[in-house]
Each structure stands twice: as structure tokens, then as C-alpha cells.
Amino acid sequence: xxxxxxxxSLSDTEFRKIFRSWVDENCPMRLRNMRKxxxxxxxxADWYHALADxxxxxxxxxxxxxxxxxxxxxxxxxxxxWARLGCPRIPDHGIGLVGPLLxxxxxxxxxxxxxxRILSGEDVWCQGYSEPGAGSDLASLRTAxxxxxxxxxxxxxxxxxxxxxxxxxxxxxxxxxxxxxVKQKGITVLLVDLTSPGVTVRPIENLRQEAxxxxxxxxxxxxxxENLVGEVDKGWNxxxxxxxxxxxxxxxxxxxxxxxxxxxxxxxxxGAFADPAFVARYARLxxxxxDLGSAFERFAKQxxxxxxxxxxxxxxxxxxxxxxxxxxxxxxxxxxEEARFLDDLxxxxxxxxxxxxxxxxxxxxxxxxxxxxxxTIxxxxxxxLPS
Amino acid sequence: MPEIILEDxxxxxxxxxxxxxxxxxxxxxxxxLRARRGAGRDLDRDIWSAMAEAxxxxxxxxxxxxxxxxxxxxQAILSEALGRALITEPLAQLSVFSGTLLAGAxxxxxxxxxxxxxxxxxxxxxxxxxxxDGGFAVVTATADVAGVTLxxxxxxxxxxxxxxxxxxxxxxxxxxxxxxxxxxSDGLSVSERPTVDGATLAxxxxxxxxxxxxxxxxxxxxxxxxxxxAIQATRLTLAxxxxxxxxxxxxxxxxxxxxxxxxxxxxxxxxxxxxxxVDMWSVAEFSCAAIVNALERLxxxxxxxxxxxxxxxxxxxxxxxxxITRKAIHLHGAMGFTDECDIxxxxxxxxxxxxxxxxxxxxxxxxxxxxxxx
Lengths: 387, 374
Known about the structure:
CATH topology of the largest domain in chain B: Butyryl-CoA Dehydrogenase, subunit A, domain 3
CATH class of the largest domain in chain B: Mainly Alpha
CATH superfamily of the largest domain in chain B: Butyryl-CoA Dehydrogenase, subunit A, domain 3
Shape of chain B: globular
Strand order of the largest sheet of chain A: 1-4-5-8
Number of helices of chain B: 12
Shape of chain A: globular
Number of helices of chain A: 11
Distance between the termini of chain A: 52 Å
Radius of gyration of chain A: 22 Å
Number of domains of chain A: 3
Number of domains of chain B: 3
Largest sheet of chain B: 4 strands, mixed
Largest interface: A-B, 31 and 36 residues
Helix content of chain B: 40-55%
Distance between the termini of chain B: 40 Å
Order of helices and strands of chain B: HHHHHHEEEEEEEEHEEHHHHH
Oligomer: heterodimer
Largest sheet of chain A: 4 strands, mixed
Number of strands of chain A: 10
Strand content of chain A: 15-25%
Strand order of the largest sheet of chain B: 1-4-5-8
Structural class of chain B: alpha+beta
CATH class of the largest domain in chain A: Mainly Alpha
Radius of gyration of chain B: 21 Å
Order of helices and strands of chain A: HHHHHEEEEEEEEHHHHEEHH
Strand content of chain B: 15-25%
């Protein structure tokens, strides 16, 4: 196990310097600034293990479980530097979702068993939440878990399960009972081995023609009762609790930042900055990005001061995802006739993955709660508007 | 509702907000605006004197000139609160812009007299320096035996009819000079035009207007930071006022749509309305964040980073306030289209402030030009 120190006692500048220099030295160049948003485990196993050996794989888990134990302020630095150095997103459902859930709600036996296996890369997790009939309305999920002796028998289907085809475990929200009035009741969290008999994983090609998410089918899958997290029927609040301050990262400026730098690169190459109409459009996008940075800092400061965030943070996700789209749309506009190409556009100074970003930018406004859902949440939680 | 969030260890900001709230009890913003508009005046001297008594007019002027010696953060909090309360006397130009120029002028009897009068409210000191396109007016100062003679025309002058003194930025050979010109001087004429929010802007003409030599307050203002500082401080003040007006208009609209019942339900329960209100709230949040960012950059990174941040803040707050207030009118339905309903006054105020010292499109272009300049 790597030696740890009290990172939170360092100044932000010190921590940033230490973190940045090690990551810059150790993250393989072939993984930097990848086109792919979500490389699979095998592509970056060496980097994953290097982080694990260093003890830096899991920024927020407490150190007793092998994490860095970072507070929110330091975690933001971790994520910022990660993005700045162009490091790839690692399959992080185990680190970001399952780990925190077990640390807070799991039994000692569950923690002792699962946490080390996440750090070692032995277990790769995915998140089994959405279903064909339960997307925005997640609480209407129907995948059934029925108690049978010392097991649950699971039947049903999950969809949009990111990287399920590269995972061997799934964190599953199941229906154990039905309350006609409150559909959030009767939901139970189970840890399910994807190699169990009766599980079928079918990758789905996304708009970028990548297999990034999957359908997962469960047919009489037997899950040991000890794989229950928390209490039967009370899983909804568990699932919500672990979201925590991580929601701020859905609105972090890094995605539109990358997209804007590509737009600038293409605009320089095509001489678009000589066109006042383009400059006016570009200026709007540039200022939107600049102001997103200011708004992100407004919430980051709140997080540093209070340790928590309110529902209002989803304003970042809405703004960020819509800006990301506007930038990639503008990039295709100035690509002109070339906007049709699937492959990257040559500029004489590197290539610009205009179509890749254009397609990718469709997703952020949909996942993690579509922007319409976010607006409805804000209407109720922040403005107190009636139903 | 969104507001400018700054650390307030000694409670100064809370005090400023309270004092504006108390002031608004005495002088209702909308009512005062309508009264002044009805009387065809460009400034309400009673309100202006009360603002002086509250200590607001000399907030940023240094203590050795009799001011409170506070900074832009305090000014921003004050102006945000004034924007909320729709107290529309032109503090940004008459106190912040004129005050910054006076603070940077050369020490002397005339400067002291003007600063003292500005702070006490006894002198209305209107800056004169722009053309209708926002650029520098051409007012020429020609030296002669008695002092200088001014010729030329300037526009966009606030409170010109009420002004006791014009603070004129003139060109003298190849330098810029700042000159104090008493209202009513020979060869000086003022013609007013109404603005949408019930005030006026004036064209001021100098037709061989003689000024004594001791009225020249500063020289060498070309390539000097003073004017940039004044513009920057005023822009940020306007941004804060816009943020306050936008936030208040949003609040009023949320309240109204919760009360207004159609089809047996409050209209705020309809998703189409809810999403609009959320979008209004979002841009109000972004305005406040942009202003805080500008204040921080001014404190930590003066120069280019601060200049960029101020441009961004004024652009964002202006865009947001105009957008919010326009939607606010719409969400008030036919009532929103009446003069009787206050919400329209917020929109008119926002339109005025948004157009002052650069509209968002212009400011964004300045931002990009400055950022991309090597």
C-alpha cells in the first residue's frame, strides 16, 4: 500500500504542484487528449495500476480504505489538473459510485471484500440504473428482485449502462415492492456479479459508432442476500446520497474548453477570424466559456466553505452542456463543405476532430438527468414553484 | 434570489444593503421615477441629497478628499441594492465616474471644492466626454491669456440640466485635459433628449466658452490610466446595478406567476413557465458570479486579467438584465404591458444601463480583441 499523507493540510498551490508534477510524469502520453471520451479498462490498465500503487486512484475515499481522503477543495484541484493534463477518464463507477456507497452504507464484510478489489482493478463496476421505461422517471424502475431463501432472484432489463461490456460487477437498482403513492419506496440496491448465470450484456453503438453503453438483461439471476446494500425497499435515498458534491463536475468547463480550443484552431486555419460575423459569434462563445468559469468558481467556493452544494449547482450542467453544443455547432459551420467528414479535419497545425466533438456534445445534455429534468428540479428546489 | 456573494467579515456589506432597504422605504423607487419623469427632470435633488446624507456619493472617494475611502466591492454591493430598489438617480456617472476622475486629478482648490460638493450633494458634477457612438467627443481647449476657450460638442451627458459643474474632457494640442466648467457659462448650451427610463441625456455644446486657467484639473490624460480606471469602475458599478435590477425583476415575476391563477392553477405550475423562470434565474446567477470574478481579478490580477473580467461582467449582467426583464414583462401578461405595472420600469432601466458604456456585443468584441492581442 502506498504511503499517504494529510493532503488537506497542504496549501492548494502546494497540493496542485505535487499532484500535477507526478501525474504529468506518469500518465502515458498515448493516453493524453484521447478522442475517445471513455476508454475501456484494458486500454489504460497500466495507468490505472500506477495510480493505485501510488494511492491516488481514489481521491475522496478515506485513507483507511486506500483513498486520498481529499476534501472538496482538493478534489476540485485533482479534477482540474486531470483535465488540464489531458488525462483520460478511467472506468470510475467503482471509485466514484460503488466505493462511496459501500463506505457509507455497506457492511464491514462488504467493504473489506469489494473496496480492495476496486483498487486492484480486479473488479470493474458499472451502474445499473436506467431502464427502457425508466429514464428521466428513474423511480418507476421495474427490474424485480424477489427474495428466495438466502438469495434474491432478479428479473428485468437495464439500459444505457455505460461500459457494462467491460465490467464484471453491476450496482443494481431493483424493485422489491410497490407503493402506489410513492414509487421511490420499494427500491433496493444489490451488488450483482455480471458473470452470474442469466445475465446477458449487449453493447449498444452510440452516435459516435462506439460501443460505450449497453443493455443488460437479467433472467432468473440468483444474487446472494449478503449482496444487499442497506435495507430492502430503502435503496432510493442511498442512490441519491452518493451523488454528493460530484455533481459539480458535470458542469466543469473542461469539455467546452477543449471544444473551443478546437474551434480556434480551425478558425485560425480557415482564416475565419478575418470575418467580423464569425468574430461576433466566436466572442459570444468565448465569453460564455469565460463566465462558466466564474460560475463554476461560485459553486466551488460554496463547496469549500460549506462542504455541501444545493440543488442550484445543476445550473452549471445545463449551461455547460448547451455551450458545448453551441461550440461544436459553430465548428461545423466554419468547416463549410468539410463539415460532412467523419474523420478529423487537417489544419496544417494538427487535426481538429470536429465531427467527433459534434456528436459527443449531444450526450451531455441528456445523461445525468436531461436538461429539462434539471430545469424542473431547479424550478421546484430553488424557485419554489408549485406543482 | 441571486446576489453578489462576498465575504463580509465586518458586516459592511450587510449594512449597505440594510441602508438601501431603509432608504427605499422613504423613497419608493418606482414612485420616485414616475414623479421625476412626470416633472420632466433629469435628477431628483431631494433624493440626491438624501443619497449624499446616506454617505453613498463619496463612497469610493479617498478620505483626504472627504470620501469614505471604500472600494469597488462596497460600491458593487451598494449599486446592486440600488438596482433592486429601482433607485435610478445616475450614481454611476455622477459619483463613480466623476469621483474617480476627481480623485486622480491634480490637488488644488478647485478639485477640493468639487469633491466636497459631490460628496455632500450640493454640487452635481456631470462628466462630459462622449459622442453618441460612445467614443471620445471632440471638445477643443485653446489656451489664451485668461485661461482656455472651449469649442465643440459632446453627447450622452447625464443630469445636464441639473448639473452645477461639467467635468469636461477636452483636447488641448496633443494632450487630453480635464476641465471644470460651471453650468451657465458663456457659450455653453444644453439640449436634452428623453431616455426610455424617464430621465434625459443631453448634448452639450461649447461655442467659444471661456474658462479660467485654475479650472484645469488635470493634464496629460492621453495614455494615462485614469480614464481607463474611471471607465472600468463605472462599468462594474453598472453591472452590479443591472444584476440587482435583474434579480429583483425575477423575484417579482416568480411571485406574480405563483399568484396568478388560470385554468384553476397558478401559472407558475406550468412547465413552460417554470423553465423560462429557471433560465432567467440562471443568467442572474451567472451575472453575480461574473461580477464577483471581476472584483477578485481587480484585487488579485490588475491589468489585463482584470480588464477582461470587467468587460465580461458588464456584458453578462447587461445581457442578463435585459433578457430577464423582457421575459418578466411577457410573464406578467397584459398587465406587464401597462405603465402602471412596475415590471416595465425594470426593463426600461435595464435597457438604459445595458447601453451605457458599451453594450454586450461591443464589450465582447473588446474582450476578444484584448485577449487575442499579443
